[in-house]
Design brief:
Length: about 325
């Protein structure tokens, strides 16, 4: 993995690159931020940069070290996570003390290059394992670099956090996620943008929600095209929705659509030449109220409430077709 292959996070990557260039690399880092935005890939690229013999702002990808790093078998790169070697997560989802001891042993041997330990899910360590690992962070073996990855940094021991240089990874821009989906998954622009809008800036979330995305968009289109006051159409759609396994994803999509229409209405008004064409306040209020109605319905059918799905969807669909002409017919 090389820095050049990572999407976004230019500022964060520059901090790491410059540390390698200046020869001033700290011994411990905490990469925090949402899951699926590139923390782990950046940690691997950083590990590569620290071990490549031809480092020139990025790992070369071709020297023997880079090639070995690419196979995942380089002795200087140690990866730890709550999953075992076969990718199975531990039943309790925690990193065990035995694994921490194993790392501590590996770090005792002097390395040609820099030993890099990447701990994925650093907030998910057995308490005894976290305490043992704290000792390694307090007295790191010479030349080693420890990178903690966490999407829930509040779950880390404060004493661990205070020993680390913090690098915060923000959600990726919607356009970057959509471009990734188009380029690597061959999605059409409309579908890529729709999934990206719901991904919260996470490629992992976007990949998970790819299944059935086109079909969900079709459901949204039908809802948007329902004529105001079309009670029969609304009840039919409500019945269909209540039987779907991906109802939660659909409701999330309907919410996102209302938010996007509100945002685009405000933006259009701001850039309009005629000040009298400002987005009507009533429209924005109505979109916000509908957004809240969808979120309310979503919560009602989830635990612990478990409201009747069909009745909840009927009430929601009837609410969404109330006559507000400015909203209807605007999709995308
Ligand atoms: Zn190299």
């Amino acid at each position: 993995m090389q820095f050049k292959n990572i999407i976004g996070h230019e500022k964060e990557i520059n901090i790491l690159k410059n540390a390698v260039i200046c020869g001033k690399v700290g011994h411990a880092f905490l990469f925090s931020g949402p899951a699926g935005v590139g923390k782990r890939l950046t940690a691997f690229a950083f590990g590569g940069a620290l071990n490549c013999k031809n480092f020139n702002g990025d790992a070369c990808g071709e020297c023997p070290d880079c090639r070995l790093l690419g196979t995942g078998n380089h002795p200087n790169l140690i990866f730890v996570s709550p999953t075992d070697k076969d990718g199975n997560e531990a039943p309790d989802g925690l990193v065990k003390i035995d694994r921490v001891r194993e790392i501590q042993n590996l770090l005792r041997f002097k390395a040609d290059g820099r030993k890099v330990v990447i701990v994925d899910g650093a907030d998910r360590m057995q308490p005894v394992a976290a305490n043992a690992f704290l000792k390694t962070l307090e007295e790191p073996p010479e030349g080693s670099v420890i990178i903690l990855l966490s999407s829930c940094a509040t779950g880390l021991l404060p004493t661990m956090v205070s020993r680390c240089q913090k690098i915060n990874f923000r959600p990726l821009p919607k356009g970057a996620v959509a471009a990734f989906l188009s380029k690597h998954k061959g999605l059409k622009t409309d579908d890529a943008e729709m999934i990206a809008a719901q991904s919260c800036g996470s490629i992992a979330t976007a990949l998970k929600s790819m299944d059935g995305a086109g079909e969900r968009r079709g459901v949204l289109e039908r809802l948007v095209q329902l004529a105001p006051g079309d009670i029969d159409g609304a009840l039919k759609l409500a019945e269909e929705l209540s039987k779907r396994d991906d109802l939660d994803d659909i409701l999330e999509l309907i919410k996102t659509w209302h938010r996007d229409v509100a945002v685009s209405s405000v933006c259009e008004a701001r850039f309009a030449a005629n000040p009298f064409s400002a987005a009507p306040e009533g429209l924005i209020k109505e979109l916000c109220a509908r957004f809240s109605a969808v979120e309310g319905a979503r919560r009602d059918i989830m635990p612990p409430r478990y409201a009747n799905k069909q009745l909840t969807m009927e009430a929601l669909m009837l609410r969404l077709i109330e006559s507000k002409p400015a909203v209807h017919g605007r999709l995308g």
